[in-house]
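Annotators were shown the component list below and the corresponding predicted structure, then asked to write short factual statements about the assembly.
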Amino acid sequence: MNTGALGRLVLVPNTLDLGTTPTPIQQVLSAGVLQRAAGLSHWVVENGKASRAFLKRVGEFTPLGTPLQAIDMRELPRPRKGAPNAVVEPREWQALLAPALAGHDVGLLSDAGLPAVADPGAALVAAAHELGLIVEPLPGPSSLTLALAASGLNGQRFAFEGYLPQLADERAVRVKELEARSRREGQTQLVIETPYRNAALLAALVQLLQPNTRLSVACGLTSPGGWCRTWPVARWRQPGAVALPTMPPDLPAVFMWLA
Amino acid sequence: MNTGALGRLVLVPNTLDLGTTPTPIQQVLSAGVLQRAAGLSHWVVENGKASRAFLKRVGEFTPLGTPLQAIDMRELPRPRKGAPNAVVEPREWQALLAPALAGHDVGLLSDAGLPAVADPGAALVAAAHELGLIVEPLPGPSSLTLALAASGLNGQRFAFEGYLPQLADERAVRVKELEARSRREGQTQLVIETPYRNAALLAALVQLLQPNTRLSVACGLTSPGGWCRTWPVARWRQPGAVALPTMPPDLPAVFMWLA
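Structure shown to annotators:
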């Protein structure tokens, strides 16, 4: 707490084991990050329950400065039903950041990896910049750059597309557009999918991409069963290839290709 | 060392303080990563001298399994003078990975952040996949995703372009292309520059981009003097804006915009 001055918005990384067996937290996050997180008494989070579980894990490593029950924890607004793109009013962001305006450092946490990267939070960070708050990102892993490093595909030029369209026809058009751009610009393409649809997306990519395009899948990285495979599409098409290794329906995966 | 079996290629993250005052290593890297790095006796690195300094910092935290002088450390091939795009022969990669083929885990390290992301190493990782070696990326920060999180710009869709063309005319064309794509696809654009040219690149972007485009600069993140500012270009154009905060000629920076 910095009385008299503005607090900061502190971006706190999470582990990458969402949906699977928890990794020991000190395997993934630095002692410095754990200590900084343990000292924060005000939070804005993607999910309150998951964030309390996170702080419990932090507290096992280094005692929390404020007891868990006394921590001020607010959830990011969720997309409204029937209006997923509804704009959140600026005053709602300002309300979430009120503790920082009152001098407290405020932690921002998502359910996995870095907040605001392939995860909610960017609008809150933008509001913090507009309010003149200092934004302090703590170092931690992002599943995207970790997967890219592991793929061996071009890490000097890459693009993250988020989720591909759900409809098969629209998805095919977009995959072919991104494959053409990858060939033209030497740009690695990254996409993600809801875990239970991972196997279906892999099958679609293996069918849609050109035989010489290199396709990489990184699954559950930093977890004990995590793996990454990079093969030309022609090899993914060989019988048995897609079955080995398996695509568990609960593990997050990143799909990447370079034409 | 795994006698009888193949070793792994272990991607080891570095800190992000290249060119500035070293941050305490346990502020940035996890205890698990430091322990794994301390146990590796074979390395392929971007730069031998910097990597020995890294291992010395690791050793202050947790004793190295092999004395520094006895560690087998090989450097990645550098672009050949006059032939920067010369292809390295597959057998050269295989030679670098020989210890892994003989059963030793081999660490891959670059001078900052994750190897193979905005840094050398991807071709070695690709060779490891081709040889059937397991690639194990250890969790750590990438300056790109850290900057993106701090920017408050769109983290659900973004592209890293690497370096812009040096020639002013070519650079202007490419910046305008990427701004148009950003507007069309809602894609945040990320570029980097050699640190001593950071101030010149910022001036060029402020001039080239549209007034409503949001431009973000993240400089020296995770270092004590690190900062990130996100403003509409119109605000960057106000007198004094670019001078505050300063662009030190030795700190790495990431430039981002969203139209």
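Statements collected:
1. Residues 168-185 of chain A form the longest helix (18 residues).
2. Chain A has a mean pLDDT of 92.
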